[in-house]
Amino acid sequence: LAGGIILGVALWLRHDSQTTNILYLQLGDKQAPNTFYVGIYILIAVGAVMMFVGFLGCYGAIQESQCLLGTFFTCLVILFACEVAAGIWGFVNKDQIAKDVKQFYDQAFQQALMADLDTNNGKAVVKTFHETLDCCGPDNVIGAVTPLWRDDLCPKKDSFMKNLIESSNCHKKIDELFSGKLYLIGIAAIVVAVIMIFEMILSMVLCCGIRNSSVY
After folding, report:
1. Is the pTM of this model over 0.90?
2. Separation between Cα atoms, residue 124 and residue 130, nearest integer Å
3. pLDDT digits 0-9 by tens, 153-198
4. Which residues form each disulfide bond in the chain (predicted)?
5. Which value, to the nearest 10 degrees, does the dihedral of the CA atoms of residues 36, 37, 43, 49 take?
6. Terminal Cα-to-Cα distance of the chain (whole angstroms)
7. For residue 199, is pLDDT > 60?
8. What secondary structure does DSSP assign to 70-116, as a single string?
9. 163: exposed, middle or buried (C-beta count within 10 Å: 0-12, 13-18, 19+)?
10. pLDDT at residue 119 above 70?
């Protein structure tokens, strides 16, 4: 059940419309940075393997098989080590992920401002960012005045003043998007780790109990 829940959360994060709209973008020959998906794929793998390993543990307990329970424990140790490694990787790269996406956005924004160049797709990329995140412009002076003179790039508001007041910079929105998603991944990883620790303890207790009872 825990494996199924983790798998479901990971698949939801993987196919979330906000992240997929942004991370599937392509600026010329350059693909949007999708390092974020590494953590998601690890969660998907852990959830799927947990479901299989959980079945192995249940079957081993029913059959009172020390071999199956020992295999179950070994698989859990390997999964736990992978999850700890993934957690460390996520903690180290959590700021870098948002930074890479912001750099990609800034490059697209600079190209979008060069309206005479029809050869690039910067405008389409920028509009996707703006519509998906409901923002307009980077975190600088140019970004602050963008709603005033490039309303073709920003989400449409009912009035001029509303467009100016409610528009927030995309750097802030990108930070909020990925910090929120990474927060969910962190919670899922902690829950799985706690469950795994209890599973390892209980599987060893049961295995030792079966071995001792077979002596008599």
Report:
1. no
2. 10
3. 676 655 555 555 555 788 888 888 887 777 777 777 777 788 888 8
4. 135-170, 136-154
5. -160
6. 35
7. yes
8. HHHHHHHHHHHHHHHHHHHHHHHHHHHHHHHHHHHHHHHHHHHH-TT
9. middle
10. no
